[in-house]
């Protein structure tokens, strides 16, 4: 029924839609929603009556739009209520629990959190006894945690805010007494709710949070929430011109545009997390486990410099690991999530059984980790503290780290802390020098990624990271993301990460505004070429050549495109232009020879292949080309001589024996031909592969005078 209602609303068949909506609301058993639907239906009935009488109402169009918006809201709410009234999972249980026993109002929750915050500020001043002070602070922390969890759950499962709830929630947002961390959790709850059920009041809440709060933690969570809600709820958002207008105002703020650009890059970087995770699991960690040096628990970093007595194979392994770690470091500096693999196995603690905890900003006062800092002498300068203060790690990973350390016996924990502090000065320096820009956004997106990928609650939500997260594909975000300043950096990022189809679209747009930029045309051509769109690539490269004439890179890729299209004459013309600039480029000479070969100009081709054979240290490829030219010119003895040279190398392939067999067969040396064919078969994975390889040369052998019957006879002689 829900889909039918939405279809009718899209077609603006409101009268029919209201009838079905009224029926659906009655089935939901929610009298409040049913009452709202009946009021909506009645209001529309009056509008129809006034219109039928020819009465003019200057507010009619506006009222009609409002009715449509309200109808969509109620249809979504009715379906949401229907789903979770009997639905399974954590949200369904919470929804039914709150219907039976409503949680405190936002006003009550606000007052509770303000009171707790004041008490936590007063206790250290009023209580002199350290034991009692710690006990009271712990009790307040536990109470605060429960209140914040309730605040999150109430917001997350809400089927829509009333005007009163919105006002109370906004007052909570504006409170200067409530800790920023607590408000951050609520912003996350609003975001998670909006991803599943669009509520204009909650969307306005995020706008208010971004526009009115000044703390980076809050503004960035709110902005990311706005972005995600806009991206995933574009159909609903289109019904609210006031929100579209609010988004357009972001264009007037350069700082907001910069933040949006950073968020877009970070969301694109989330695509790399799966690749990074795979590399960690399949390359880095297995290599470290195999290497004896990295299995030595007592190794000091400085010991790695002493390589005299090491097995050379160990050294190679260490160098390989170092290279992979360097790659990880570069990705980390970009903002990539390089710690997913490390910490994903540390999310089984009971702490993560509460959904709200996945969105907690890290706080040492959270009861589950507070003991780590209460019971140990961990200095502010310790590596543990530096790790926890670092923006390199997201919030949930910091909690994982603390929970893991806290599970270690006290004596071992103290020893670990001392060992880390003594042996890892270089880590301390790296942490001090790390990049600080867009840290809040990066940490939060990494937290979101972990929630949607590994949390217990991931099955109850559509994975937002399964989407490409190309924000510019959303009509309301597009002008904010693809500004004149940021369009090229985004295109360049996509280009660098090999997302060539998306990059091509953006470069195409750039050519319309910056048509004389040769680099843009080059990159567009390269993207099109990688997408095998050779004709389009050629046109792009020609434009690049127009604005930057005789650039070797452009000419080479023009030639390659023509070659891929089997237009060898045009390809050759461009290769020859490059030859004038780079006459000793061996790869170029091979390309020229191949084009000449394709045009059956074997003598000309041989001149190039001979030159490559003479100049290169690895002549096998040139020899293959020489052998083929001899073969095609029916110089079978010369061809066999060349193929025998190849057979003596370590780079021999099945085709090298096959072609030698063909040459022997054509000069009537059947015995030697069969011997070469047997060698070919031995190098093939199976007899079927050999037959397929052999049959591929049928047309060429027929051209050289072998009959079809004799050609098919040969394999049976082996």
What labels describe this entry?
single chain, 718 residues, mainly alpha, 39 helices, elongated
Strand percent estimate:
under 5%
Please, how many helices? 39
Structural class: mainly alpha
Report how far apart the termini are.
71 Å
Query: Can you summarize the main beta sheet?
Result: none
Poorly predicted runs are: 291-318, 431-435
Q: What's the total number of strands?
A: 0
User: Gyration radius, to the nearest Å?
Assistant: 35 Å
**How helix-rich are the residues, as a percent range?**
over 70%
Mean pLDDT: 87
Principal-axes shape call: elongated
Describe this structure in words.
By secondary structure, the chain is an all-alpha fold. Among the domains are: 2-86, no CATH class; 104-266; 285-297 and 311-465, no CATH class. Helix content is 73%, strand content 0%. The chain has 39 helices and no strands. Helix 2 runs parallel beside helix 4, helix 6 packs antiparallel against helix 7 and helix 32 (602-615) runs antiparallel to helix 33 (620-632). It is elongated. It starts with a helix and ends in a 5-residue tail after the last helix. Mean pLDDT is 87; it is low at 291-318 and 431-435.
């Amino acid at each position: 029924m829900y889909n039918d209602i939405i279809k009718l609303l899209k077609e603006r068949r409101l009268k029919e839609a209201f009838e079905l909506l009224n029926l659906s609301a009655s089935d939901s058993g929610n009298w409040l929603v049913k009452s709202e639907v009946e009021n909506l239906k009645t209001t529309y009935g009056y509008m129809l009556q006034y219109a039928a009488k020819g009465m003019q109402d200057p507010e009619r169009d506006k009222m009609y739009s409002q009715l449509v918006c309200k109808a969509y809201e109620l249809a979504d709410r009715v379906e949401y209520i229907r789903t979770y009234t009997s639905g399974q999972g954590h949200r369904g249980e919470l929804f039914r629990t709150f219907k039976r026993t409503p949680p405190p109002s936002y006003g009550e929750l606000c007052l509770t959190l303000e009171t707790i915050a004041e008490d936590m500020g007063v206790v250290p001043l009023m209580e002199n006894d350290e034991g009692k002070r710690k006990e009271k602070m712990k009790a307040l922390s536990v109470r605060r945690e429960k209140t914040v969890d309730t605040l999150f759950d109430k917001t997350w499962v809400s089927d829509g805010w009333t005007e009163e709830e919105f006002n109370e929630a906004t007052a909570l947002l504006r409170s200067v007494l409530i800790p920023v961390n607590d408000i951050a959790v609520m912003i996350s709850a609003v975001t998670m709710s909006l991803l599943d059920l669009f509520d204009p009041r909650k969307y306005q809440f995020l706008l208010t949070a971004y526009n009115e709060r000044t703390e980076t933690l809050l503004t960035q969570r709110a902005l990311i929430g706005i972005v995600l809600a806009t991206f995933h709820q574009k159909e609903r958002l289109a019904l609210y011109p006031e929100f579209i207008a609010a988004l357009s105002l972001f264009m007037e703020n350069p700082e907001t545009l910069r933040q949006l650009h950073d968020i877009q890059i970070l969301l694109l970087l989330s695509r790399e997390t799966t690749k990074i995770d795979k590399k960690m699991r399949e390359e880095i960690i297995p290599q470290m486990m195999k290497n004896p040096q990295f299995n030595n628990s007592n190794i000091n970093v400085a010991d790695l410099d002493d390589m005299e007595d090491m097995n050379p194979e160990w050294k190679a392994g260490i160098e390989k690991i170092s290279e992979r770690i360097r790659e990880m470091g570069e990705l980390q500096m970009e903002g990539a999530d390089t710690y997913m693999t490390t910490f994903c196995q540390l999310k089984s603690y009971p702490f993560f059984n509460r959904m709200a905890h996945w969105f907690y900003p890290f706080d040492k006062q959270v009861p589950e980790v507070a003991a780590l800092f209460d019971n140990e002498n961990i200095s502010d300068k310790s590596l543990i503290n530096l790790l926890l203060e670092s923006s390199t790690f997201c919030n949930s990973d910091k909690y994982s780290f603390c929970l893991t350390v806290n599970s270690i016996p006290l004596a071992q924990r103290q020893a670990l802390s001392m060992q880390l502090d003594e042996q890892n000065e270089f880590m301390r320096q790296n942490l001090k020098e790390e990049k600080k820009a867009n840290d809040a956004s990066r940490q939060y997106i990494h937290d979101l990624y972990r929630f949607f990928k590994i949390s217990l609650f991931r099955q109850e939500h559509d994975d937002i990271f399964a989407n490409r997260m190309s924000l510019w594909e959303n009509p309301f975000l597009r002008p904010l993301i693809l500004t004149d300043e940021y369009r090229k950096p985004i295109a360049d990022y996509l280009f660098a990460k090999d997302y060539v189809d998306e990059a091509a679209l953006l470069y195409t747009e750039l050519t319309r505004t910056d048509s004389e930029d040769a680099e843009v045309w080059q990159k567009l051509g390269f993207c099109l070429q990688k997408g095998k769109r050779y004709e389009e690539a050629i046109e792009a490269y020609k434009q690049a050549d127009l604005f930057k004439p005789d650039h070797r890179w452009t000419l080479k890729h023009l030639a390659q495109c023509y070659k891929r299209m089997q237009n060898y004459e045009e390809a050759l013309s461009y290769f020859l232009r490059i030859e004038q600039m780079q006459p000793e480029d061996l790869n170029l000479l091979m390309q020229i020879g191949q084009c000449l070969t394709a045009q059956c100009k074997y003598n000309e081709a041989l001149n190039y292949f001979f030159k490559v054979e003479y100049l290169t240290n690895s002549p096998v490829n040139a020899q293959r080309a020489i052998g083929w030219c001899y073969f095609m010119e029916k110089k079978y003895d010369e061809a066999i001589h060349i193929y025998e040279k190849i057979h003596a190398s370590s780079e021999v392939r099945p085709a090298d024996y096959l072609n030698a067999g063909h040459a022997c067969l054509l000069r009537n040396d059947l015995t030697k031909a069969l011997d070469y064919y047997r060698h070919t078969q031995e190098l093939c994975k199976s007899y079927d592969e050999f037959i397929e390889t052999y049959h591929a040369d049928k047309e060429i052998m027929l051209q050289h005078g072998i009959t079809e019957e004799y050609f098919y006879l040969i394999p049976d002689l082996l």
